[in-house]
């Protein structure tokens, strides 16, 4: 008999598929996460504790966040995204050890409280991807200095790639940020924006993509990643960008100038051997990270549908003599939302399983399809939820407008939809030769069967 707590979140059909692949430990973590009820009621407090404007808004983190982190740690809900590998146990064995499939279900549950749950459990972007970079490619000193405190949730980090006035979705365009190697030093200059987390007072490291070898014949070997501390001389946080007016304080998505920042050459990710490997490393970062966003977006969509269902059942909100739920268009919105969420979940679970079985590289197709379909699905569901709420649905009195703004950004972040669409289209076309050979064989066999039967060619 399926655990009702779980099937309130995940459809019974999807759960029946993944349940046999869950370890007992993962099942127990999942139910603990579902019971971690401190998160949703704390959302309003988190926003109330943030200064409404001015520098104070960026000076400290609402105290409720640390309380939630402490509680999550006590409950064993820590670093759940950490799917194993060589950095398992680096934070004193805290958390991790789940498969991507197990984590996918948990990330969906966390998506119900996108503002608090991922960070409370040390599972939030961009830290997870940054930890992965440091774990896989960092030197032992870099791991000790940045990875360990990140795993412990003591500091936060940024990934600094997108450049002002450069079409950054084509990463080979990136050129305004350069690092000159001068003996044992690297001098970094550049102008980035949309750097998530750069406003956070806890931020202790930016992983910056910069040009180190502009003359290299291969455009994929010109860049490196360097580790920069925001307190260093020459790092200037210019301003937080806003998304439909939201600044996402205290983390923010900031414009940042690096003005002749002097670093040791040991600040290159991977040390001197990491020079020229920027592209190779960022590819490794983006696969699972893109999927984590999709997993959480399904949770956001589910929460929007939950809000929709309650609103259309409110007796005070009847129109034209009926509950909203009795109008045919509303029923269709409910059914379509349910269907689309459940379809998207199966896609994400299949991508997660593919990563577990064959690695992120083998799962690029599934991850790519999820990357451009799941946020669009979630946006449709949130839009329907806003619509049934009337004008209130786009106001500050429900979280729906913030959900919409947050998910809309995923159609750009980590590469715009079109780039992924194009890649999937090209990958699909690779099947053509096999299809042509198969079709020719079918035709030959069909002609032989007709001939054997002594019949004339028939209409298809
Ligand atoms: C909230 C938020 C947070 C972000 N966080 C970070 C961060 O932490 N670090 C970071 O480095 N960046 C971050 N970004 C930036 C994000 O990764 C970039 O916006 C994204 O990669 C697109 O780059 P661009 O904005 O320069 O758009 P451009 O490259 O100028 O592209 C503009 C548009 O061109 C179209 N386009 C591009 N290629 C194709 C194609 N092949 N076919 C058809 N159309 C195409 C798309 O519609 C695309 O949206 C964030 C963005 C947002 C909104």
From TrEMBL:
InterPro entries: Acyl-CoA_dehydrogenase, Acyl-CoA_Oxase/DH_mid-dom, Acyl-CoA_Oxase/DH_mid-dom_sf, AcylCo_DH-like_C, AcylCo_DH/oxidase_C, AcylCoA_DH/ox_N, AcylCoA_DH/ox_N_sf, AcylCoA_DH/oxidase_NM_dom_sf
A Pfam short name: Acyl-CoA_dh_1
Protein name from the UniProt record: Acyl-CoA dehydrogenase
Species for this entry: Saitozyma podzolica
Domain Acyl-CoA oxidase/dehydrogenase middle: 158-261
Gene Ontology MF terms in the entry: acyl-CoA dehydrogenase activity; flavin adenine dinucleotide binding
GO cellular component terms listed in the entry, alphabetical order: cytoplasm
Domain of life of the source: Eukaryota
Keyword annotations from UniProtKB, A to Z: FAD, Flavoprotein, Oxidoreductase
Quaternary structure (record): Homodimer.
An example Gene Ontology biological process: fatty acid beta-oxidation using acyl-CoA dehydrogenase
Transmembrane domains' residue ranges: none
Recorded family membership: Belongs to the acyl-CoA dehydrogenase family.
Domain Acyl-CoA dehydrogenase/oxidase C-terminal: 276-427
Domain Acyl-CoA dehydrogenase/oxidase N-terminal: 66-154
Cofactor: FAD
